[in-house]
Each structure stands twice: as C-alpha cells, then as structure tokens.
Amino acid sequence: MSERRVSALELELFTHRFTAIARQMGEALRRTALSVNVKERLDFSCALLDARGHLVVNAPHIPVHLGALGLCVRSVAEALGPFEPGDVLVTNHPAYGGSHLPDVTVITPIFAGELLGYAASRAHHAEIGGIRPGSMPPAARSLAEEGVVLEPQLLVRGGEPRWEALRERLASGPHPSRAVAENLADLAAAVAANQRGLEGLTALAAREGSARVALHMRELEERAAERMAAALARLPEGRRSGVERLDDGSELRVEIVVEGGRALIDFAGSAPVHPGNLNATPAIVRSAVLYVLRLLIDEPLPLNEGLVRDVEIRIPSGMLDPPFPDDPGAAPAVVGGNVETSQRIVDTLLKTLGVVACAQGTMNNLLFGNESFSYYETVCGGAGAGDGFDGADAVHTHMTNTAITDPEILEHRHPVRIESFRIRRGSGGRGRHRGGDGAVRELTFLEPVALSILSQHRVEKPFGLDGGDAGGVGRQRLVRASGETIELESIDSCDAEPGDRLVLETPGGGGFGAPD
Questions:
Q1: What are phi and psi of 111, to 5 degrees?
Q2: What is the pLDDT of residue 5?
Q3: Are 122 and 73 in contact (CB under 8 A)?
Q4: pLDDT averaged over consecutive 10-residue blocks of the chain (516 residues)?
Q5: Whole-angstrom distance, CA of residue 345 vs CA of residue 357
C-alpha cells in the first residue's frame, strides 16, 4: 500500500466536504422533483465518483442504487466517451450497470481543465411503461414488457439539451410510459441535482486545486481498502458456504474464502436465468456485496469502491448475470431482481458470515394504478436479531432505505384510503434476542386499479441464527367489497374495484440465540 500523503485530519475534512456535496445533490433532487415517489418516498440516490468512474462518496440514500453507480458510470463512459464540458448522460439499461427500468440514472461529467469526476443520480420512476401500470409487472417475461428501455445516450451535449428526443422515446415503443410529463420533470430534477454536484466539486477544486481534490479521492478509496483488509483479517480464515432459496425454489449459493486479508466471493451454483422477473445483474450483485462488506467495518466510512479492492467477486452466467441481447423483447425480465433478489443475496451473505439473523428479506413492493396514474411503495418489516441486540420492528432493512408516503398526501393524490398501518405483533422470531415484528398495511381502493405485488418470504421463512427461531412469513390478500377473499402469491397481480381492500402482512425478522 502506498505511503500516506495526507494527514488523517485533512482526509476527514475532505471526506466531509465530498459528502456534503452529495447530500446537497440529494436535497436539490428532492425539492425539485414532481413525483410522489421521489419527493415523498425519497426513492433516489446521489453520489460523486472520481475520473475513473469509481464511487467516492454518497449521500445516505438507497444501497441497491449506490453500489451499482460505479459500474454504471464506467459502462456508459466506455460506450459513449470521451465527454466534454456540458454533457449529461442518461440510461436505465440493465446491461450498462442499471438495475431495473424504473431506476433511471443521470450522469454528469465534471471538468476542471481536465476530467475531475462525475456526479450521478439514480431515481425510481413509478411509471415508465410496460404491460401494467407501475412498470413492475409480475407476469413479465421479457425486458420489453417492463417498459421503455433507454440505452446510454446524451441528454445534453455540450450544453445543448435534447429533451424532445427523450420525450419521443418515452412515448414510443410497444409499451410507452403513461406519465411522460412526470418522467421529464423528475429527469430535469436529476439534471439540476447533478449540476449542484458539479458546482460544488468545481468550487472545491478552484479553492484547493484539482490535483489535491483528486488526491483525496484516491486516499479515501485507499482508506476504505485498508479498513476492509483489517476487517477481513479479523474473520477466521478458510472457506464457508451458504444457500438460500427464493419462494419459487430458485437457489442462491455463495462460497466465501478468506485468506491473508483478502476474500473471494463466488456465487457459483446459483440458479440459471429466471423465467420470470427475478433476474439480477452484476451491478445489483456488486451492490449487495458492497453493502454487506461495509457492515463489517465499525466506523463511519462512505460506501466506497475501495471496499472491494481486495475482494474478488465471481458471478456465473444465470439469474445473477443474464444475457442482454440487443432486442429487449428477447432480453430477460429483471424488475424483481433489483428489489427482491438483491435482498435475498444479502440474506445469503449474512447467513454465510453468521453476522445477523435474517431480516424480512423483501421490499414488499406494492403497485397500483390505471391509465391516469401509477403509485409505488415499499413496506417495512422486521429486522433480524444479532448477538447482543433485538431486531427492530417495522423498519426498512438492508438494500432499501426509502420513506413511506404520508397518509394525507397518499389519499390526496391517489384514489385510495388507508384503513390501518400497524405493527404485526408476534411475527418476529423468538430467541435470546427476538427478531423484529413485521407490519400490517390495509388499503381500500376508491376506483378501479391494476394491483401488483412483488415480494419474498411468503414461503421461505426468514432464518434465525445460533438457535433462534425463524421469523414469520408474510401474506397478502384482497378482500372484495362483496366479502370474497383472494389470496395473493409472493409475486402476483389482480384487478381491484372500488371498495376492495388489500391486507398486506409483512415478514418478521429471525431471532438470535436459543430462547430461554
């Protein structure tokens, strides 16, 4: 490792400066966005990257977004670079470091004489086309059925915007967006957020010098790598393996080999390409690995690609690395891979490392809408217990970090009434330390809507550790106004009518230690 060229105090000051810029980006995006999903649910992420496209710092946003941004920026730069001042790029394509189509990434190269780095924003659009409102169709079998695919493209070239071309793209194809105006408004907010990042980083470079800024970016990555090496050195050396199953039986397998402060994380043996929409991408897998590795370091440190400098990640072709031919109609569906498979990858890694019992292991994705609106939310559940602590009740865990829309705003903006939102008592696993309880959310629809659910742990129980009991599985059902009850599967959809009520029960977390 290189000898330190800056003091610890100086590096800490620059780290806070970088982080403050990323936070300012996030606040600008939240304030200027139009959609409920971005403005109220905070389903977005902002980060700064260095000139190599390596993640440097992030605001405390969505882990499944943040760990993928470096791979996305590097893939887009390879496809479209070199760039010039005034360029802005946009994509949602899974083959270019994307996750699923609703997550649209905006990238702004930052110049201070030469390329200094990138500002990047990724926000979830609650509507971007597809065969069902909400753009997360449970029955999708191809990428084309999930919405409008945006290959990497210039949204602004040398300061000249290309909004009309993007508008035409969003409104075209077999399944165009139902909310083009909202898409463009949220994309304009992302461009403005990135501009805030550009201005903040160039101002810092003007004050401190571009070379010093670049140096501190490298040193921050070096510090992350050193802390990760130290964390790996504290783990017992050797091989450990784990397996978890999705509710449909698809397996996630991992072998972790720790030796000499380095690690190999190998997902060989995981399921082949999924016939439905639970396919992930290498960017998603990388996000999950970065997140879990970060948990091993007990000090404030930005999610940073230095964490994987001494970690080799092997991802076999299949559900975790599916092929993406040029024709979206021939490409696999991926929308559930981002939200659900990512959570289950984290479950598998934490189980293999024996760090903490399983959390609810799902985002409980709930979508409803029609041709006039689309709404999306994720619902909290139980956190897993660990050695010395109980799991928290009714929280978002691991790869998600969103809020939930205030009842007043949800009921004002959309034809729905919230009947109940409460803790699901007794759903956490028993143990010396108990798992957190899930939640119960009941909604009554006031006009006809297409309802979609993407979830997990409705069949497979969230595991306990060290003798602790598993958490309770989740459940969802639609109670018709007539009194008829329809049980919904982990990944399912139906049409709801006025007066129909959805009852969503989310999983509890696993317990830790044998119950007394």
A1: -115, 140
A2: 65
A3: no
A4: 67 94 95 93 93 90 79 96 97 94 97 97 95 95 97 97 97 95 97 98 97 96 93 94 98 96 96 98 94 89 88 98 96 96 96 96 96 94 97 95 91 97 98 98 98 98 98 98 98 98 98 91
A5: 14
Owner of token pair 């080799």: 312
State phi, psi for 78 to the nearest 5 degrees. -65, -35
| Tens of pLDDT, residues 403-416 | 899 999 999 999 99
In our burial notation (b when 16+ CB lie closer than 10 A, e otherwise), range 68-105 reads bbbbbbbbbbeebeebeeebbbbbbbbbbbbbbbbbbb
pLDDT of residue 169: 97
pLDDT digits (tens, 9 = 90+) for 173-188: 999 999 999 999 999 9
- Determine the 3-state secondary structure of 387 from DSSP: coil
Question: Are 97 and 334 contacting, i.e. CB atoms less than 8 angstroms apart?
Answer: no
- Tokens representing 52 are 């190599």
d(CA 416, CA 332): 33
DSSP labels, 272-292: -S-SSS----HHHHHHHHHHH
Cβ neighbours of residue 446 closer than 8 Å, sequence gap 6 or more = 415, 416, 417, 498
Q: What is the DSSP string of 452-514?
A: EEE---SSSPPPPBTTPPPPPP-EEEEE-TTS-EEEE-SEEEEEE-TT-EEEEEPPPPPPBS-
CB 241 within 8 Å of CB 269? no
Determine the Cα–Cα distance for residues 278 and 291; give it in Å rounded to an integer: 20
Lay out the sheet containing 88-91: strands in order across: 55-58, 44-50, 114-124, 103-112, 88-91, 153-157, 160-161
Rounded to whole angstroms, how far apart are CA atoms 32 and 327? 34
Q: What is the DSSP string of 152-206?
A: SEEEEETTEE-HHHHHHHHT-SSS--S-HHHHHHHHHHHHHHHHHHHHHHHHHHH
Burial (0-12, 13-18, 19+ Cβ within 10 Å), 156: middle
Q: What is the pTM of this model?
A: 0.94
132: phi then psi, degrees, rounded to nearest 5: -140, 150
pLDDT at 1: 36
**DSSP E strand boundaries for 24-64:** 44-50, 55-58
Token look-up 């783990």 returns 235
H or E segment and range at residue 228: helix 210-234
- 118 membership: H or E segment, kind and range: strand 114-124
Residue whose pair of structure tokens reads 């705003």 in the numeric block:
409
Strand partners, 44: 123
What are the residue ranges of helices labelled H in 281-419?
Answer: 282-295, 335-336, 342-353, 407-413
Q: Which helix or strand (DSSP H or E) is residue 366 part of?
A: strand 365-370
Q: How many CA atoms lie within 13 A of 444 on its CB side?
A: 9
